[in-house]
Amino acid sequence: MASFGSAELFDIFNDEEHQNDDKHVPDEQNHVSQVLPSNLKREHAKENDPESQPKKPREDSISHPTDFQDSALFTFDKQIDRHKFESVEGCLHEIAVPRELGVVPLKPCVGKPVKEYSFVLDPFQRQAILCLENGQSVLVSAHTSAGKTVVAEYAVALSLKNKQRVIYTTPIKALSNQKYREFYEEFKDVGLITGDVTISPNASCLIMTTEILRSMLYRGSEVMREVGWVIFDEIHYMRDKDRGYVWEETIVLLPDNVHYVFLSATIPNAQQFAEWICHLHNQPCHVVYTDNRPVPLQHYVFPVGGSGLHLVVDADGNFKEELFNKAMSSLEEPSDPDYRRVKRTNIVENAGSCYRIIKMIMERNLAPVIVFSFSRKECEAYAVQAAKMDLNSEREKKLVDEVFQNAMNVLTEEDRQLPQVDNVLPLLRRGIGIHHGGLLPILKETVEILFSEGLIKALFATETFAMGLNMPARTVLFTAARKYDGVENRWLNSGEYIQMSGRAGRRGLDEKGIVILMVDERMPAAISKSLLYGKADKLVSSFHLTYNMVLNLLRVEEINPEYMLERSFFQFQNYTAIPDLCNKVKTLTQAHESIIVPREEDVRTYHSLRLTLDGLSKAYQEYVTKPEYLVPFLQPGRLVTMDKKFGWCVLLDREVKSELTGTTVTLTVLIRAAPVEAKTEGRLKLDDLKAPAAGQERQGYIIVLPGASLMAVSVVRVNVPSKVYSQQEKNQVVTALEQVEKHFSGQVPLLDPIVHMKIKDKKFEDLVKNIRIFEERLYQHPIQKDPAMTDIYSKFLQKDAIGKELIKAKVELREARSLLHLDELKNRKRVLRRLGYCTDADVIQLKGRVACELSSSDELLLTEMMFEGAFNELDAAKAVALLSCMVCDETAKEYPKLSEELTAPLRKMQDLAKKIVRVTVECKIPMDEEEYVKKFKPYLMDVVYAWCKGANFSKVCAMTDIFEGSIIRSMKRLEELLRQMCQAAKAIGSAELEQKFLEGGKMLKKDIAFAASLYL
């Protein structure tokens, strides 16, 4: 088998420091097994390994394609047929194949398989392996821990037998390291390339991150000529909004002669993905899909402060609505919004409940348990609370000590004294672990090893633990049903819940997995069903253009950016929607033409007048609800109107906040509504309430609304209690309100904006005048005199609504037929030309070649900084400190107090960022200057500078409140960026800059921040 030389590899990966890494092929001295004590037998590990468990033999055999069902699908330029294979128990097998090729029946496996297993394969595993034996690509979509790795292992074994290379890609470096460890034990001829680590680059099986494979493809590596198979693990990462486009780029760039294995969690539209692969590479692609869980799950709800666990979904997947409603009814919380706000932010009660549940789990022998929290601080708080328990025996404590000491031996004596290292050991000895992004990487790996060996009984983790790592438990506990996603505090979605709850149930060890959801507020039944009983998220493309992508594509001769756009999964998903959109346009057109409106032109002018009047009324409302006019009249008891259908309400409280953007007012009002069902009581919104019909009972409900939603304010006030909690108190206020309405015969007097509120603005006076003029025109309009006016106008509104839908559908159809992102691509090219990265003929210039080397951060700003001499006057340490702004994604509580020698370069960088924004906006790409500049965070500048100047890790940690693990993650990203900056400096021909970045990398890369992974 031909191989590629290390010189070529290092030219590809820009990593001269790793040229001797071949000697780091793992042996017993540097492998993870060395961390484990000799008296902890490997049999213990096998016990926890789902793939090593014997299974009962099954009589069903691999089926062969018969009785195909043919349905042609719309594609770009060729037809693709979809066929179903004969169904196999618990497994769906379909194929997408180019029509001109047709379906060739799969040949049964003959002779000895290239890899044998000590257990009977599941149907989906056998079907997928049959596809591999026939040399055809396959997407395996199955639940977490179902055994997808078996298919990947077989693909590797098949490649090695056929003297072909195989590439295994993962979304994260930590997963690459783990897969390297597993595959090295199995196959030996295995290498690892993750950017910061290179081991055995000439191996037949190469494990790498997807970004590395993309880099190889852009540089036209000879490696690809020898590759027979590429395995994409966790392909559902393609929907990640920040990095998903990398998968699409890579798949589009791969040659047609390569075959693929895609491993994914369950995705409902797996067949669509296979059709895209079939279209791209003109080869059949199979889908082997199973919804079958090796270990069924039971889902429980635990109401905080309630009456214990409630089974809401049984092992057969049946939703128990009665039991769910019973669980929710025990969450009796006052409707006062302040109370709920305090309750949500106070985790003491939740921590106590969490402790009781874990205690119960241990008593019922349901350990190990993974406890998922959605913030690092909560994760640690729950773990500290659980530390009252001791879950390990004395023998297990000794084993923990031995594993921990072996792992920490790679650190210096100084680093072993770090507070985080000291604090975590007592917890580990008690069988309690913590796993989140703020933890030191070496501690995270130690926790993973201890958990996999059964020495941690309760692991408190953030949701990242559920991504990729194959470490199941018997029980999974959620400490909350809500998470803050960076924008809002929202309910979990079904995809997130499925991913994390899928960790429950160990194959071969547990009959069923237990999932417990802690809830501290009433959850609407619709949301709970969607969450607990919902389906996995679809695989939706997150493809977007980047300047690095555009420049790399312009540099490659055979393809261009338009080629990438038209072949992206994003574009494919759009094209496949065309038939439905055509039908939608046709249906709406027929519906629009079928509605005949008498005197349509008259009605249209009347409607136009009403729209104008509505706009003026809205402007009027915005004026009278301005805080400077409104706030003096917002006393408790004031009658206000928030929504016409609910009539008058009573103001209970107000909250006025002054911010940089202005003053905002929030109102707490008591509103009359028909009695609400118990299951929607609790955190009420206006949409949850129904206006009472005539004669129907009315009750008072408390809701919170922005001041801008006020429609009218009365001069009248009623007496209200200082706090309104009980339904009786609410109904007393309703009675007082109805007495006022009765007294005024329904005509409750309003505050006059000019007389009472003293608004003397000329614009407001003109607004009032215009409203009167348009009201007069409206009432004098000829259509008003038509006896059938109500029916005519109703028909017109119906036709108008359909017309708007039709216009929208036509726009969607036009966009689907056109090349999406094309306008954005033109604008991005315009930016590149203005800044001198390429010519009008799309020929790459020197600046463009430099930007091609920079994929770890903002390529335009980095290139501008190099060409504007931002690094010329800085020494290596200051240059590295400045570059830390490009990779820091954390925010500290306090802005760092930077010295002038660091502040001046930061200001220069920010000025260059503003220049890029100006050019970008001129080229018709919307961009917010303040938001763009804020992206480059200086919170680690002084930390990195001190580190490069020789400060130890404990000292730099004391300089910031950012988690230790986050500091190290930023430093690793910074080291990767420095390697790219070296290559960029080489492209310019600046030996001085190259040496500066090389020296900075050496200053940065030391001690605990770059301690070797335990898996290597």
Structure keywords:
1016 residues, alpha/beta, Rossmann fold, Elongation Factor Tu (Ef-tu), domain 3, 4 domains, eleven-stranded mixed sheet, seven-stranded mixed sheet, 43% helix, globular
Write the layout of secondary structure elements.
Elements lengths: L5 H8 L28 H6 L23 E3 L6 E5 L7 E7 L24 H11 L3 E5 L7 H13 L3 E6 L2 H15 L2 E4 L4 E2 L5 E5 H9 L8 E6 L11 H10 L5 E6 L5 H12 L3 E5 L7 E7 L6 E4 L7 H9 L7 H9 L2 H16 L5 E4 L3 H11 L7 H15 L10 H11 L2 E4 L5 H12 L5 E4 L13 E4 L3 E3 L4 E3 L2 H8 L11 E7 L5 H8 L14 H9 L5 H7 L1 H7 L2 H17 L5 H25 L2 H4 L7 E4 L6 E12 L2 E12 L25 E8 L5 E6 L9 H17 L18 H19 L8 H29 L4 H13 L11 H7 L6 H9 L8 H8 L16 H23 L6 H6 L6 H8 L4 H5 L6 H25 L2 H14 L12
Parallel strand pairs: 4-10, 4-11, 5-8, 5-9, 6-8, 9-10, 12-20, 14-16, 14-17, 15-16, 17-20
Antiparallel strand pairs: 1-2, 2-3, 3-11, 6-7, 12-13, 18-19, 21-22, 21-25, 22-23, 23-24
Helix pairs in contact: 3-4, 6-7, 11-12, 13-15, 18-28, 21-26, 22-25, 28-29, 28-35, 29-31, 30-33, 30-36, 35-36
**What ranges have pLDDT less than 50 throughout 5 or more consecutive residues?**
1-33, 36-77, 334-345
The count of β-strands is: 25
End-to-end Cα distance:
26 Å
Give the total of domains.
4
- Shape annotation: globular
Helix content: 40-55%
CATH superfamily of the largest domain: P-loop containing nucleotide triphosphate hydrolases
- Main β-sheet, spatial strand arrangement: 1-2-3-11-4-10-9-5-8-6-7
Major sheet size, sense and barrel closure: 11 strands, mixed
CATH topology of the largest domain: Rossmann fold
The oligomeric state of the chains shown is single chain
- At the first level of CATH, what is the class of the largest domain? Alpha Beta
Query: Counting H and I runs of at least 4 residues, what is the number of helices?
Result: 36
Which class of secondary structure composition applies to the elements?
alpha/beta
CATH architecture of the largest domain: 3-Layer(aba) Sandwich
* Cα gyration radius (Å): 33 Å
